[in-house]
């Protein structure tokens, strides 16, 4: 059958116009980036609210730190199950429900009267909601909507959302807590979460194939990884998928190294600096709003550092990057006790810049190693478990540092402990094997879960 020339020209013109439009992957990525920014802001706001809560209710630092610990641990443990839920029920449903949970948890804190209510609302509601929108979400979207050669940079951008969350939310939350009151700050979090729900429902789709598209960067005839082509895990419950993936991953030495080093990463970032930097700086005479501004500045430089780390991950051995990141972080933490004071001086500013560049620069190479050793199809859930270790480490650090402060009157021991752990993590990363240890398992999974898009 011969196609009329006019019809052929019209079809060609339509395809040309479509090719000039931005790929839908960037719209999905933009909304997911917004959700990740908000989730990071929701979680990091707890550090600015510790002292206002203690002042109003007379609660101890151990009590409020315990609630933060519950938040961090549940936030982390949620990640692998959220990844499995996304495989089963889709991104839109899981992310929308997560935003609603955050809104409920934050909103109800305004009427709480007892510590157990703080633990329930911060720990369970905000912890589960924010945890379902953690870095695992960014890893899944990068795997599904972008080809392998673009994933490192995209993962770096998603990872930087944590910094942006601090940058956008933390100074405002601290100012509201110091001015009108912490309840206004909690209501801002509630409103921001609810505003994102319709955007997620309207824009986000699970996979490019749902719209008849290829992942961004794919060419006609390319063989594509499973996450980009069709749904998986539909015959396996989310909990069973998460647990089975953990059981299989535990046979790998690399998994345990990534698990342990990311535990230390969480200890030295969200758990210690993210939770206790503002109170520690205030102990040395610095106003809370100034300390919150410095923590937000960490977020500014983290945007640069994490995106750069994503770019480097596409070009440099991820093991060497992790070794450098943890090593320099450990050395920086050892100097913190000598840097804090009532005013911002040059050495403290240098620390803020350096620590910001290194804050979550560990994420892109860690995700890359999960893909390399466990396959693209499983990497989201595997990274979910590694990320769970990150937040459990953060939770332990939040309680440990609070206990150190209450027992000794300062954070000196907490800073030295974190520095030593980071130096140990730097050495441990050198023991990660260059090629996958579970070659047969990895290959079997990949062969079974690769599809071609014509």
Automatic annotation (TrEMBL):
The chain crosses the membrane at residues 25-42, 62-82, 94-113, 119-141, 153-178, 184-204, 254-278, 290-313, 320-342, 348-370, 382-400, 412-432. The keyword Electron transport does not apply. Its main location: membrane. Gene3D superfamilies: MFS general substrate transporter like domains (1.20.1250.20). Signal peptide: none annotated. It is found in: Cell membrane. Keywords: Membrane, Transmembrane, Transmembrane helix. The keyword Glycosyltransferase does not apply. One of its GO terms (molecular function) is transmembrane transporter activity. Residues 27-437 form the Major facilitator superfamily (MFS) profile domain. Pfam families: MFS_1. It is a multi-pass membrane protein. GO terms for cellular component: plasma membrane. PANTHER family: EG:103B4.3 PROTEIN-RELATED, MONOCARBOXYLATE TRANSPORTER. This is MFS transporter. It comes from Pedococcus bigeumensis. The lineage of its organism: Bacteria, Bacillati, Actinomycetota, Actinomycetes, Micrococcales.
């Amino acid at each position: 059958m011969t196609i009329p020339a006019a019809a052929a020209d019209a079809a060609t013109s339509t395809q040309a116009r479509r090719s000039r439009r931005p790929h839908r992957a960037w719209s999905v990525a933009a909304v997911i980036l917004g959700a990740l920014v908000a989730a990071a802001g929701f979680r990091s706001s707890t550090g600015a609210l510790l002292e206002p809560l203690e002042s109003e209710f007379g609660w101890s630092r151990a009590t409020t730190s315990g609630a933060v610990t519950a938040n961090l641990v549940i936030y982390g443990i949620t990640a692998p199950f959220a990844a499995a839920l996304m495989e089963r029920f889709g991104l839109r449903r899981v992310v929308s429900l997560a935003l609603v949970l955050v809104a409920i948890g934050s909103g109800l804190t305004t009427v709480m009267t007892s510590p157990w209510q703080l633990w329930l609302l911060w720990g369970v509601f905000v912890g589960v909601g924010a945890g379902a929108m953690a870095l695992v979400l960014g890893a899944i979207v990068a795997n599904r909507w972008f080809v392998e050669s673009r994933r490192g940079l995209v993962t770096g951008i998603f990872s930087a959302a944590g910094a942006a969350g601090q940058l956008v939310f933390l100074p405002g939350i601290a100012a509201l807590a110091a001015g009108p009151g912490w309840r206004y700050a909690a209501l801002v979090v509630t409103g921001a979460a609810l505003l994102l729900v319709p955007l997620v429902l309207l824009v986000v789709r699970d996979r490019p194939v749902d719209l008849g598209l290829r992942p961004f960067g794919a060419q006609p005839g390319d063989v594509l990884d499973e996450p980009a082509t069709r749904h998986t895990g539909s015959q396996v419950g989310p909990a069973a998928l998460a647990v089975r993936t953990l059981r299989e991953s535990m046979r790998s030495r690399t998994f345990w190294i990534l698990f342990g080093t990311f535990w230390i990463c969480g200890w030295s970032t969200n758990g210690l600096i993210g939770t206790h930097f503002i109170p520690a700086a205030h102990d040395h005479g610095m106003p809370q709003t100034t300390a919150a501004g410095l923590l937000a500045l960490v977020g500014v430089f983290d945007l640069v550092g994490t995106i750069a780390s994503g770019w480097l991950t596409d070009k440099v051995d991820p093991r060497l990057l992790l070794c450098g990141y943890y090593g320099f972080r450990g050395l920086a933490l050892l100097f913190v006790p000598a840097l804090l004071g009532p005013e911002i001086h040059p050495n403290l500013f240098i620390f803020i810049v350096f620590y910001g560049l290194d804050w979550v620069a560990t994420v892109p190479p860690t995700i890359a190693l999960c893909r390399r050793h466990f396959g693209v199809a499983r990497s989201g859930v595997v990274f979910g478990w590694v990320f769970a270790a990150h937040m459990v480490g953060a939770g332990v650090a939040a309680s440990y540092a609070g206990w150190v402060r209450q027992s000794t009157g300062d954070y000196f021991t907490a800073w030295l402990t974190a520095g030593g752990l980071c130096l140990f993590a730097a050495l441990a990363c050198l023991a990660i094997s260059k090629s996958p240890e579970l070659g047969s398992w990895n290959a079997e999974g990949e062969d079974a879960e690769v599809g071609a898009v014509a």
